[in-house]
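Cont'd.
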Amino acid sequence: MKWDELKTEPCSVARTLSVIGEKWTILILRECFRKNTRFDGFEAALGLPRAVLSARLKTLQEDGVLEKKINPEHAGRFDYILTKKGRDLRPVLLTMLAWGDQYMMDKPTMIVKHTLCGCDIVPELYCPKCQNKLEAEETRVVEVTQSSPL
Amino acid sequence: MKWDELKTEPCSVARTLSVIGEKWTILILRECFRKNTRFDGFEAALGLPRAVLSARLKTLQEDGVLEKKINPEHAGRFDYILTKKGRDLRPVLLTMLAWGDQYMMDKPTMIVKHTLCGCDIVPELYCPKCQNKLEAEETRVVEVTQSSPL
């Protein structure tokens, strides 16, 4: 396996990493979810080198995660907007946030609000079949070609 | 923000990335969840340079995600075992897997089985308060110091 060839690996985790696995990419997506949509805004929030930011944005567009759109209110300005494919990465960031809150923070600095019910929550994975919370040891990932727990 | 200083950022996502954000780390964890526990096994499965693998394993131990244990059946062999903190990263990998299955694969190559109910599932995030599935647009992340949707 080569890092630059993850996109063709027969593993969904590896292929996802081919899109979001480079340094800074997830933090750029975090900014997009925060409605920070401009190159200068990303640079100000993250402080990464402009060449790296430019490369990451190019890849995210090529992968269909972001769209670059002309800002209708400011001629010559562009916004980087999450596509449906990009917005669907939210659960990845939310699970990272929950883990970081639990293990990397003295106290949470961010609160997740569920707008449907209005509550502050810690998002959890559940089973859409039996409706129970997915406990850590209760999932097995079985490859189609071989048995392999994850 | 500097990549090497993510651990002190006031953001749980950034701090999580300080542990799992380097290239290969999540794939090493994937192997651990598959019960692949040995240095040579990681090298064979992933094909990454030994120096990189060694550095990643060292960091994962320092961060309390993996423990290096003597293999009781083979003198001189070591196993890298997920701690509770490490096993709790499973939701991050499962959400990546679900996204990759949806967007990066013609057909899923891995099936997630919920051992509690025996069903093949796509794990989903839900709200532990109102018990509803968390739809993409129904969460807002509010920083304690300022309002900021994620």
